[in-house]
């Protein structure tokens, strides 16, 4: 980049205002690198740094004492032509993230960097570095644990980056395995489960797939098709279909938002229900899908009906209990037994 000539005082002031935060974001940097970045002559950078070193904010005495001024590593500056700020003023008094706040934000950014739509994570890495440097104290070292679906996420990231479709064998909720070819659009998580959302070429529609039900996942050489203008990815992770089954569940009113993805409807708050309880009708693709709902909200959701739904959940729970030496009566399949866990 060719050097620019600063014609007036206003341009020099603009340069100074940009230079200070630029230097703050770096432990040390050569005069030449700064000059190349701003497109100015190296001597202009040296003059600006010398001016910064005698600038500051007056303290309580209203006089410029040593602690009221910026300071630099003079030996490095004069000997090696390298700039390193060693004391900052005014800006240090502004609100800053605590070490705990910065650590929480960094953990969140690490999570975001694992999503396929953020395959180019250079900006996220830069932001994490800035949070580390600008916190009031060194943030606690945190790392978001990789999930069992980490390999699948990596493959999907590669497909999104290359603009190609993915192909895999998928075991659906009904226990049927099918070959699927999908334009990957987004990866989302619910608790510890990860899902791929995209355009399914087998169904010719938007579909959601659990990553742990995929096998033989691989990228293809087929390019993804442009998303039609009239195709909008729904906000809800799970979308109902005409073949879905109705299931009646009972739960505390405060827990109703946890079932948002199951399209709850027809709420009942009377019929002799305990206080603060509500009865809802939710929709599932298959009664076996209730296993995830009940296990994820153990002790919160009770399956009320129909009988086939109660039996599917009771058989699943009973099979687990039978692994212990002493099983309760309800685990033998007696449908008249009192409600236990998530079954009534």
Report the biggest beta sheet as strand number plus sense, adding barrel if it closes. 5 strands, antiparallel
Q: Low-confidence runs (pLDDT<50, min 5 residues)? A: 1-7
First-last Cα distance:
74 Å
Total individual domains: 4
Structural class label: alpha+beta
Give me the strand/helix succession. Answer: HEHHEHEEHHHEEEEEEEEHEH
- State the shape: elongated
Number of beta strands: 13
Domain PafC HTH: 11-133
Protein name: WYL domain-containing protein
Domain WYL: 153-218
Domain WCX: 246-318
What would you note in describing this structure?
Pfam families: HTH_PafC, WCX, WYL. This is WYL domain-containing protein. The chain is α+β, with helices and mostly antiparallel strands. It has 4 domains: 9-93, Arc Repressor Mutant, subunit A (Orthogonal Bundle), CATH 1.10.10; 99-134, no CATH class; 150-223, SH3 type barrels; 245-332, Alpha-Beta Plaits. Helices cover 31% and strands 23% of the residues. It is built from 9 helices and 13 strands. It has helices at 9-24, 31-38, 42-52, 74-80, 99-113, 122-134, 150-162, 290-296, 307-321; strands spanning 29-30, 71-72, 82-83, 85-87, 164-171, 177-190, 193-200, 205-210, 214-223, 245-252, 265-268, 277-284, 302-305. It has a 5-stranded antiparallel β-sheet, with helices on one face. A hairpin with a 5-residue loop joins strand 5 (164-171) and strand 6. Helix 2 (31-38) packs across helix 3 (42-52) and helix 5 runs antiparallel to helix 6 (122-134). The N and C termini lie far apart (74 Å). Residues 1-7 have low confidence and may be disordered.
């Amino acid at each position: 980049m060719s050097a620019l000539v600063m014609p007036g005082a206003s341009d020099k002031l603009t340069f100074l205002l940009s230079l200070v935060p630029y230097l703050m974001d770096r432990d040390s940097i050569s005069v030449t690198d700064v000059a190349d970045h701003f497109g100015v002559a190296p001597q202009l950078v040296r003059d600006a740094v010398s001016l910064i070193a005698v600038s500051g904010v007056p303290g309580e005495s209203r006089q410029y004492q040593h602690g009221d001024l910026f300071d630099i590593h003079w030996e490095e500056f004069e000997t090696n032509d390298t700039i390193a700020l060693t004391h900052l003023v005014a800006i240090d008094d502004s609100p800053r993230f605590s070490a705990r706040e910065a650590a929480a934000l960094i953990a969140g950014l690490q999570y975001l960097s694992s999503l396929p739509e953020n395959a180019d994570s250079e900006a996220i890495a830069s932001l994490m570095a800035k949070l580390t440097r600008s916190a009031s104290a060194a943030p606690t070292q945190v790392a978001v644990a990789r999930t069992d679906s980490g390999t699948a996420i990596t493959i999907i990231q590669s497909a999104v980056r290359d603009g190609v479709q993915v192909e895999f064998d998928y075991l659906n909720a009904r226990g049927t395995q099918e070959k699927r070819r999908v334009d990957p659009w987004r990866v989302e998580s619910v608790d510890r489960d990860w899902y791929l959302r995209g355009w399914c070429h087998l169904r010719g529609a938007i579909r959601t797939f659990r990553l742990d039900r995929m096998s033989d996942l691989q990228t293809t050489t087929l390019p993804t098709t442009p998303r039609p203008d009239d195709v909008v990815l729904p906000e809800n992770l799970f979308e109902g279909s005409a073949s879905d089954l109705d299931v009646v569940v009972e739960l505390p009113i405060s827990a109703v938002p946890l079932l948002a993805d199951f399209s709850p409807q027809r709420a009942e708050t009377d019929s002799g229900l305990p206080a603060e309880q509500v009865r809802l009708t939710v929709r599932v693709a298959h009664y076996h899908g209730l296993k995830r709902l009940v296990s994820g909200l153990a002790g919160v959701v009770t399956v009320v009906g129909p009988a086939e739904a109660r039996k599917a959940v009771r058989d699943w729970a009973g099979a687990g209990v039978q692994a212990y030496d002493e099983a309760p009566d309800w685990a033998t399949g007696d449908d008249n037994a009192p409600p236990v866990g998530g079954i009534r």
